[in-house]
Amino acid sequence: MARLIAARRTAVVPRGGAFARLRIEDLAAPVLLACLADAEIVPSQVDEVILSNALGGGGNPARRVALAAGLPETVAGLTTDRQCAGGLDAILLARALIDSGAAEIVLAGGVESYSRRPLRLRTDPDGGAPQPYDQAPFTPWPDRDPDMAEAAETLARRLGISRARQELWAADSHAKALVADQSAEVVALNGVTRDAFPRVLSPRLLAKAPALTGDLTVATAAVAADAAAVCLVVSDRIAQGRGLALLAGATLGGTPEDPGLAPIAAIRRVWTGEALAQAEIMEAYAVQALAVIDGAGLDPQIVNPAGGGLARGHPIGASGAILAVRLFHGLQRGKGLAAIAAAGGIGTAMLVELSGA
Question: Do 106 and 234 contact (CB within 8 A), yes or no?
């Protein structure tokens, strides 16, 4: 069984902030090296690097990161794109490689620079001027490919999740993040040693927050951000009883226009209702996190104990891996769960257990 024996991340910094000038390899290479140092693994032992990246311009960022970190040139690197779910999926790919016997030591996670994402232009086959676009299509049908904020607002209306409940969840996420000890998980970079965004969300601030659509506001949606997060996934032979056992993982597609609900089916695939000590659920929107908690039957008291994406920000390709880093450093006993939704109606979930629990 594959095990996770080290996990690190950068702080999460809103786009245009302290990480704005950093390339993807500048963000991720120090995190890879920190994971190896924590586990006392030397770079020459690494079999593969798998990283998720959703917004970059190609060029296999995982390969660039591996080279920048000084890993052997034989490490080819694999970059994946499953949007928000990609960082967690990279860890599940590492698990599959190890459980199949194809590798023993894999660095897996995600990296995103929202600040340095390339501009996108759609070419005209008839020779017209290229047209800029921001969001790539997530389905072949425009009428089933909603704007993410509009999809979240539709979900809130359908499930009766009020603005007040969303704001309460957001304020609590920030409050927990403000007091969380991040020293064990965050690699200092550009002088930043903890997440830059958490703040006190008073009722007055929440009331003044500009609306995105309907009852969704900027306070109940995660901000675009830059970050990297990496986990070291190894075989039982290498782990020697250390770390978190990767018990199960699943990625499932759901209704494209309902991306917020997609993780529920994935959670049900990996979790059969046994006691959980901690759950890390992505908060792209407060309503999306609440819908998953309600739909999967999770205890809200164990969800995101150190705050979530609303307090950190959303570095898309890295967000799933950040959930795994939080589990690695936060789980004190028993089993833990991580789950995330992605555009196009995709959900990923992973179940872990603390060794010796």
Answer: yes
- DSSP of 174-206, one letter per residue? HHHHHH---TTTBPPBTTB-S-S------HHHH
Mean pLDDT taken over the chain: 95
The question of whether 231 is a catalytic residue gets the answer no
34-60 pLDDT, tens per residue? 999 999 999 999 999 999 999 988 889
CA distance 297 to 273: 9
pTM, entire model:
0.96
C-alpha to C-alpha distance for 260 and 15, rounded to whole angstroms: 23
Mention the CATH class of domain 3-118+174-354: alpha beta
How many helices (H) and strands (E) the chain has is answered by: 11, 14
Active-site residue flag, 314: yes
Six-digit token string for 149: 């904020």
* Catalytic residue (one of 35, 84, 231, 329): 84
Sign of CA dihedral 54, 56, 62, 63: positive
List pLDDT tens digits, range 257-298: 899 999 999 999 999 999 999 999 999 999 999 999 999 999
Give the residue among 206, 168, 193 at the shortest CA–CA distance from 283: 168
Question: CA 52 to CA 186: how far, in whole Å?
Answer: 19
H helix runs in the chain, sequence order: 24-39, 61-68, 86-100, 148-159, 163-179, 203-208, 236-239, 262-270, 286-296, 309-312, 316-330
The full DSSP string for 277-319 is: SEEEE--SBHHHHHHHHHHHT--GGGB-TT--HHHH-B-HHHH
- Count CA within 13 A, CB hemisphere, residue 246: 30
Give the domain ranges of the chain: 3-118+174-354
User: How far apart are the C-alpha atoms of 8 and 111, rounded to whole Å?
Assistant: 12
Q: Dihedral of the CA atoms 292, 140, 78, 252 (nearest 10)?
A: 30
User: Catalytic pick from 35, 231, 314, 329?
Assistant: 314
Tokens of 322: 């950040």
Helix (H/G/I), strand (E/B), else coil: 220: helix
